[in-house]
């Protein structure tokens, strides 16, 4: 039963627009939660602020707040209450008991969006795994929803406990099946990555909705899904950026980051995030027009550091400059990320400039070599042709003389030292 339920809260996000009440600690984060729930097609109709100091271990919020929430729910005929915090399984259950309405927390919302946006076998498996891991300790909370979906009789509590046990076992089995499937997919990915070892890779990273996919499309003339939605992209798409360069250059789009990304998601998206580790250069894309641009930059850098990628070479791209009116914003962001480049993905000349910056980055790592390749080593000569920029080529008695500009790692791989003049 559980494995077929597509949603954490079946019914809530599936039929038309439901109204929900959002509860949280701060306005900015609640603005983001509004965007998240709107992405799910749900209307956030009321916002209730709570103080962070007094966390009630049983219900997170105090009695007074519960009454306030209750009143809002009744007044607006809301279908659910969304908490912009991490609720423990216990708090979820108690809140639901008190409020007699569906409760979801921030992680649940994000996982729900990922579920709805997963398109490929890989991302579907990753999300399903993350969802069940999130669900497992919360089964007794979500169980009531599944039970309603099954059409079971409410109130038969003894039966419920037994059913939870059955479901728990089902979920555990399902988790191990998904884990195995994911391992298989990871192996496939590894093979694909190995096939790309001869190219230079630029990975686009950044906060969700920063414009990564739009930039990838503009840079590579392709059509990766890009939308004004949070987490529009969940898969790492690889596109040729400059097939004519030596070596060829590819760009890789990746899943967006967000503040307090649920750990279950980070864990199951490991194989997608591996693409970042494999990249030669990261393009950190920032939505410069966003009021929280600096914070979003920080969140992304923090996640990158957690993934052990702090040292990876990177270029910060301040995107959406067409929407930035005050020059102060740009200066402020430049202070945070020196050497950043300001662009609009919609302006062709900006995209062209960004492309040159990327190519220059790799050019800098190139050096001139003068080599004499014996005619018996025609393979090496062919490799030099495909991976370097040839300046002079002359046939001599002893072999082909070549003056070539080539990337340092390639010079090493081809053992040019051996043929150096
Ligand atoms: N005004 C403006 N809008 C942009 C620019 N770049 C992207 N957008 C818009 O921003 C929205 C998000 O763009 P995406 O490319 O989907 O963003 P993303 O970073 O791939 O987002 P996720 O896949 O959700 O992580 C879309 O509506 C784009 O049209 C830009 O330079 N200027
Ligand atoms: Mg995208």
Number of discrete helical segments? 15
Output the radius of gyration. Answer: 26 Å
SS class: alpha/beta
Strand count, sense and barrel status of the largest sheet are: 6 strands, mixed
Physical arrangement of strands within the biggest beta sheet: 6-7-5-8-9-10
User: Mean pLDDT, rounded to whole units?
Assistant: 86
Q: What series of H and E elements makes up the topology?
A: EHEHEHEHHHHEHEEHHEHEHEHEHEEH
User: What is the CATH fold-level name of the largest domain?
Assistant: Rossmann fold
- CATH superfamily label of the largest domain: GTPase HflX, N-terminal domain
Q: Classify the beta-strand content into a percent band.
A: 15-25%
In helices, the fraction of residues equals: 40-55%
**N- to C-terminal distance:** 71 Å
Count of discrete structural domains = 3
CATH class descriptor name of the largest domain = Alpha Beta
CATH architecture of the largest domain: 3-Layer(aba) Sandwich
Q: What would you say about this model in short?
A:
The protein is an alpha/beta fold. Helix content is 47%, strand content 18%.
Describe the structure.
- With 421 residues, the protein is α/β, with parallel strands linked by helices.
- Helix 1 (27-39) runs parallel beside helix 4 (106-117), helix 3 (89-99) crosses helix 6 (139-150) and helix 4 runs antiparallel to helix 5 (121-135).
- The protein has a 6-stranded mixed β-sheet, sandwiched between helices. Strands 2-1-3-4 form a 4-stranded parallel β-sheet, sandwiched between helices. The chain has a 3-stranded antiparallel β-sheet with strand order 11-13-12.
- Helix 12 links the parallel strand 9 and strand 10.
- It folds into 3 domains: 2-173, Rossmann fold (3-Layer(aba) Sandwich), CATH 3.40.50; 196-363, P-loop containing nucleotide triphosphate hydrolases (Rossmann fold); 366-419, no CATH class.
- 47% of the residues lie in helices and 18% in strands.
- Magnesium ion binds next to helix 8.
- The site of magnesium ion (MG) has 6 residues, from helix 8.
